[in-house]
Amino acid sequence: MELLEATQLSEYEIERGKPMPSKNHGLVQGNMTGELYVSYRKTHSFPTELTLLFDEKEYVPDICIYPKMQYDSKTDEIRVTEPPLTAVEILSPRQGSETS
Questions:
Q1: Owning domain of residue 41
Q2: What's the rounded Cα separation, in Å, for the pair 66 and 83?
Q3: Coil vs helix vs strand at 32
């Protein structure tokens, strides 16, 4: 596996601490989110690329699973501190199994 120098990383990769998503990554994420929504939309919500803040550290999993949330266009959160029931991270070929 080829390691990239810090100067070669995009702003996205530096900010999120993970590689830039690819076409296949996007297709898998979309398909997984769609399947979850079709099967569980009445009882759960599935925000994608949600910034989670725990112990002053940010995490951005590909898909989060929460009990059903109400959408309110007038109120939004940039960072969420409530842990999801489950967080899904789709690994890309450039992303190892170890996290920092």
A1: 11-88
A2: 8
A3: helix
Round to whole Å and give the CA distance between 100 and 98. Answer: 7
Amino acid occupying residue 35: E
Looking at the whole model, is its pTM more than 0.85? Answer: no
CB 21 within 8 A of CB 29: yes
Beta bridge partners of 45: 66
The encoded tokens of residue 16 equal 């999120």
CB 63 within 8 A of CB 33: yes
> Residue 4's pLDDT is what?
47
The total of structural domains in the chain comes to 1
Q: Which amino acid belongs to residue 77?
A: E
Strand ranges (E), the chain: 44-45, 52-54, 57-59, 63-67, 86-88
Beta bridge partners of 86: 65
